[in-house]
Amino acid sequence: MSDPLIALIETIRQIVPLSETDTTLIKSVFQPYRLKKGEYFVQQGQVCQHVGFIHTGLVRYFVNQDGDEKIYDFGLENDFVCDYESFLPQRPCRRTIQAIEESDLLVISLSNLQRLFAQLTHGERFGRVAIEQIFVKTIGQLVSLYTDAPELRYQAFLENYPTLSTRITQYHIASYVGVKPQSLSRIRARWAGKHYSRLSSPE
Amino acid sequence: MSDPLIALIETIRQIVPLSETDTTLIKSVFQPYRLKKGEYFVQQGQVCQHVGFIHTGLVRYFVNQDGDEKIYDFGLENDFVCDYESFLPQRPCRRTIQAIEESDLLVISLSNLQRLFAQLTHGERFGRVAIEQIFVKTIGQLVSLYTDAPELRYQAFLENYPTLSTRITQYHIASYVGVKPQSLSRIRARWAGKHYSRLSSPE
Questions:
Q1: Which residue ranges does the record assign to the Cyclic nucleotide-binding domain (chains A, B) (predicted)?
Q2: Closest residue in A to B67 (Cα–Cα)
Q3: Which of A73, A180, B41, B65 is deepest in the core (most CB within 10 A)?
């Protein structure tokens, strides 16, 4: 298994160039953190204290809507994980992030993240671009919960998470798509039918 | 009426210090833009081409949910306005931003904004902090649409927009709160009652 710090540094290097001093700083401000299956990265009502980098494992993000858990996103290997709405202003979460599989993370506190922004050669640029990417993705996931029909959300699930359907339950997929598990089966059947017709079409 | 450029520069200066060269650059990359009442800053399906700074006026942000317009935010004087989910990756909007009042803006294109991030003394820091603030606010507005009961959303409306209730229609307030206009009247009556009881309470 690869070194989580190397994976983290490669992920940051996709955004900004890093000097040797930069990588030494990165290694000094992240700490290893393990979540068992079912444990929470952060729960609704708590203040989110860290940004995590997922080396191995899988988490789900959900909001509680009238007692129903609505999954709106998943976090996989090489993703950053955080409830920024809580973390940045340090106020209680309105969402929960929970490990679906045992997950090995590297985590950084707010004060160390601010040190990273200030002290990395291109720290502020890293901060800006990383938060822009996360912003666009998170807004997209939340708007999609409102505006996209279940079929479209199932299609997006398959496209965004091609390897996930064998790692999560039908309940999780149905919650992400926004339907009851029995409706998901009908969507899957229709989807399989369409897909087959398209493949066998003579044009 | 004050100079919109002075208001813009003061707003940016609340985030980062600005030199004289910085303010000259800011003046050169923003253009005046007027929206008539009812005109769109950007419509669902279009690509958002600008970030705007609202000097005077008022806009609403809404998503279309099964044919219903759901207002989730307003933009007022001294706010930045943009659909970042469309603007940053330059893909079609899933939301609409429309002027409720005639609005005078200063707008900047994506290429000029990137110039600003690169060339202002603390341009990257400005970009990071500004996008963090907008991210936290936008996520909050969207999550609130799901998780908060109408009473709580009405309370948040009064707190976040204390001067707005005389500038917008009952329809707009009801859409923001997430109820039909007739339900809003009942919420307002209950709210007024509670408020009165609290004021006249003997403790």
A1: 33-117
A2: A147
A3: B41
Contact A155, A187 (CB under 8 A): no
| Residue B125 in contact with partner chain A when CB distance is under 8 A | yes
Interface of B with A in 143-162 (CB under 8 A): 143-147
State percent of chain A over pLDDT 90. Answer: 72
Interface test with A, best of B135, B138, B144, B175 (most A CBs within 10 A): B135
Chain B neighbors of A132, CB-CB under 8 A? 84, 88, 131
What interface predicted TM-score (ipTM) does this complex get? 0.85
Each residue's pLDDT tens digit, A44-78? 999 999 999 999 999 999 988 778 888 989 999 99
Per the CB < 8 Å rule, is B143 touching A94? yes
